[in-house]
Amino acid sequence: MSKKFYIATDHAGYAVKAYVKEIVTDLGHEIIDLGPDSADRVDYPDYAHKCAHAVLADPGSFGILICGTGIGISISANKIQGIRAALCHDHYTAKLTRQHNDANILCFGERVVGKGVIEDMIEVFANTEFEGGRHAGRVAKIEEGMCGLGADLG
């Protein structure tokens, strides 16, 4: 089943963006490029938020965010309510974040993972469904912003 992906990067993730777009389209999915349009210096929070809001406005869509390490851009995206942006480094993390966390944005670092790993992560992220079940309650807690422990933490 074809899916829609939004992609955004900062300057440190720009070089691999064309490769990622090719992978997504080769897998039969649609990809919308939200920028930037060059490798000139930009601030990753701006592009993380742009992608996060696009994903939220388009139910059933997904995002891909790339910066140098994937850390800053994933933190920024996760500030947006309803986003579950997962920093992944390999097949296993990309698969489990879809199965267990119902992640809607895949994040990674251009300086951290190679092209073969990127291709594998995108393929498994796109083709793995959320398991629900015991994981659904945990995802609901994430969405509510509540851990259930409250003041009991001391």
From TrEMBL:
Gene3D superfamilies: Sugar-phosphate isomerase, RpiB/LacA/LacB. The active site is at C67 (proton acceptor), H100 (proton donor). Pfam families: LacAB_rpiB. One of its GO terms (biological process) is carbohydrate metabolic process. It comes from the Bacteria. One of its GO terms (molecular function) is intramolecular oxidoreductase activity, interconverting aldoses and ketoses. D-ribulose 5-phosphate binds at D10, H11, G68, T69, G70, I71, G72, N101, R111, R134, R138. Keywords: Isomerase. InterPro entries: RpiB, RpiB_LacA_LacB, RpiB_LacA_LacB_sf. The keyword ATP-binding does not apply. NCBIfam families: PRK05571.1 (NF004051), rpiB (TIGR01120), rpiB_lacA_lacB (TIGR00689). Belongs to the LacAB/RpiB family. This is Ribose-5-phosphate isomerase. It comes from Sulfurovum riftiae. The lineage of its organism: Bacteria, Pseudomonadati, Campylobacterota, Epsilonproteobacteria, Campylobacterales.
